[in-house]
Design a protein that fits this description.
- With 182 residues, the chain is of the alpha/beta class.
- The chain has 8 helices and 8 strands.
- Helix 3 links the parallel strand 4 (64-68) and strand 5.
- Helix 2 (49-60) packs parallel to helix 7.
- The two termini are 16 Å apart.
Length: 182
């Protein structure tokens, strides 16, 4: 499959070919950059189902997925379980600590990891990983340090965009799509 999208001409395919783990922030990446609080004080999260399918398809190609979030939410645990994401770190002040744990546990090097983040707490791991990705609303500093900025906003297709671009770079997207066309 050639050039699924115009955006892929800016995507660093050479870096994406090496990716074996993608680390996602939650607020602003897996969900929109806002927090909803009910009248009873319950914190609500919104997740995009298209992003979820993209994550599942990428995982099926052998790429591991992880979540590292500064906040803690039961909704994240539920969504991670639905997507069979084994590596979930919440309430993390220094994201570099679980990042290093993941590298050790999975026997990976920085160049084999992609990170999607949108704000200052993500900066250190974005600077270390092999493929740093951010979204249009991200702080300017992160945009400058990232290898790629998505066209779609966080919580609204950015994750799916990245999953498809990584699969395209690794020549696994067409096989994943074939499951749905037969």
């Amino acid at each position: 499959m050639e050039n699924l999208n115009i955006r892929d001409k800016h995507f660093p395919k050479s870096k994406a070919k090496n990716i074996r783990l993608v680390v996602f922030d939650v607020d602003g990446i897996l969900s929109p950059p806002k927090i909803l609080i009910s009248n009873s004080g319950e914190i609500l999260k919104e997740f995009n189902v298209l992003d979820g399918l993209g994550m599942q398809l990428l995982k099926e190609t052998g790429v591991e997925l992880a979540i590292i979030s500064g906040r803690t939410s039961v909704a994240v645990d539920i969504r991670a379980a639905e997507l069979n994401i084994k590596y979930v770190f919440q309430g993390v002040a220094d994201k570099l600590i679980p990042y290093n744990e993941l590298l050790s546990m999975l026997n990976l090097q920085d160049y084999q990891v992609a990170v999607m983040g949108d704000d200052f707490p993500d900066l250190r791991i974005l600077g270390r990983c092999g493929l740093g990705i951010t979204v249009p609303h991200a702080k300017k500093t992160l945009q400058e340090k990232s290898d790629y900025k998505t066209e779609n906003p966080g919580g609204n297709g950015a994750v799916r965009e990245v999953c498809e671009l990584i699969m395209q770079a690794q020549d696994t997207l067409e096989k994943q799509m074939d499951k749905y066309s037969q």
